[in-house]
Amino acid sequence: MTVLQSSPRPSAALKQQCGYFDRAASPFVEVAPPAAALPGDVDAPGEAVSRRYHPLPVAGRGWIDMHAFANGLTVSRIDCRMSRPRAEQYQTFPDSLRLNVVLHGPEALCDRQGRQIEAQVGDILVRHGDPGPLDWRFPADSHQAAVALELPRAMVQALAQEGVDLSHLGTPGACTVLRPRA
What's the number of CA atoms in the CB half-sphere (13 Å) around residue 33? Predict the structure, then answer.
């Protein structure tokens, strides 16, 4: 049995996501930030960190929350309806495996090769490692709901050492969509 140790940077995924929500042009504001939150606290090894955001009133309604566990696992949830189209642009990603289950509304993204990747309700959008720059697009007035699980590379490697076959989740450095069978 493989023993998982706490990663020295357990919440790189959370830090990257918070970076989007915390920048000036974001349509989201943090709800009741933790009293002890300091710039860099999401890097504290061995500690769990949570964040919750909601859209500015003029931008839409709903919420987004993220929780990074001490072992590096991150769980994110979204349930929003934005009044305007929304675009998120990311240049780099943590070396992790992200499984995003689309519960409501379409998700569309464009990778560095210009390839359009579209996920519908019931699909699992898989990001395996750092695929390079990605642009996410969400149409105006669409209900977006999803749950994402992000595993740090050490956890993915531990699963592989235990004999878990993850080859169907795509190759490192890529995004793919898994669709349920009809």
Answer: 12
Q: What span, in angstroms and rounded, lies between the C-alpha atoms of 140 and 104?
A: 14
Cα-based angle 80, 92, 48 (whole degrees, multiple of 5):
60
CA 80, distance to chain mean position in Å, is 15
- Cβ 105 vs Cβ 57: under 8 Å: no
CB within 8 Å of 73: residues ≥ 6 apart: 149, 150, 151, 152, 155
Amino acid at 3: V
**Radius of gyration (Cα) for the chain, nearest Å?**
16
Of 102, 104, 118, 91, nearest in space to 175 by CA: 118
CB 121, CB 164: distance < 8 Å: no
| pLDDT attached to residue 33 | 58
Instruction: Please report which confidence band the pLDDT of residue 47 belongs to, taking 50, 70 and 90 as the band edges.
Output: confident
